[in-house]
Write a structure and sequence with these properties.
Elements lengths: L6 H26 L6 H17 L1 H17 L5 H12 L4 H35 L1 H12 L1 H10 L5 H10 L4 H24 L1 H6 L12 H26 L1
Length: about 240
């Protein structure tokens, strides 16, 4: 008969189970769903989706929110498709609210799972060991709000990375949640707006122009917001330099 697990070891395992489950589902989803959550799939089912929305609006909203939260929580491929679908099914408003709410909820769930499983102890070990990484961690803490907003506003930072890094640096939940909601709102507005015209695009057998976010009228304001977010960091370095 095997001896029972030590209480501390059992508690550690239970804390790590959520993030381990997320990692397993993420790997399986990357393999199995890579070709499923696509424009082609949406084009094939667009009429059925619209019919279901018209016949069961409340159920369609709940199903959409649940699917989007699951995609973000498990870092599955298709978050952008979900955002476009939100605009396609529900219009700019309330579609953008559904998109931001579901993406933020999924990000918070992933953040909490990562922090419970690894993040808090990882951050403590960095602080205890000292060195360059600990100094970087301390520097980031001095400008936490700015760094969090920059990760959301600058389009080059993958969404799942921006969900995991704060967990590993032990960022407070309220800061992570607020910066996520406000930081993803500009991009969500753009892609939800693209989604509102998705029906006509799919009917022609085409794909939407997702490069719209990199055009000057859109990218300019986003970079302006990113510059405002970075301003406190620049001012701190300037004061230290003096």
């Amino acid at each position: 008969m095997e001896p029972p697990l030590h209480p501390n070891r059992s508690a550690k395992l239970s804390r790590r189970l959520p993030i381990l489950a997320i990692l397993l589902v993420a790997v399986a989803g990357a393999v199995l769903l890579r070709d499923q959550l696509s424009f082609e799939t949406l084009a094939r089912h667009r009429e059925a989706l619209l019919d279901f929305r018209d016949a069961h609006h409340a159920a369609a909203v709940l199903a959409f929110l649940a699917a989007y939260v699951a995609v973000v929580t498990f870092s599955l491929p298709g978050a952008l498709i979900c955002t476009l679908t939100g605009g396609f099914l529900f219009g700019l408003f309330p579609g953008v609210l559904y998109n931001v709410g579901a993406a933020s909820a999924g990000a918070v769930l992933l953040f909490l799972a990562a922090r419970a499983g690894l993040g808090a102890r990882f951050a403590e070990r960095i602080s205890a060991q000292g060195g360059a990484v600990a100094r970087l961690q301390a520097g980031l803490k001095e400008s936490e709000w700015s760094v969090l907003f920059l990760m959301r506003l600058v389009p080059v930072v993958p969404f799942f990375v921006a969900n995991l890094l704060p967990a590993f640096l032990n960022v407070p939940l309220h800061r992570f949640a607020i910066s996520t909601v406000l930081g993803i709102l500009p991009g969500a507005l753009v892609y939800t707006s693209v989604g509102t015209g998705l029906g006509a695009v799919l009917a022609r057998g085409e794909a939407p122009d997702l490069g719209v976010i990199f055009t000057p009228p859109v990218l300019g304001p986003l970079l302006g917001l990113a510059a405002l977010s970075a301003l406190p960091i620049v001012l701190k370095f300037a004061r230290k330099g003096r």
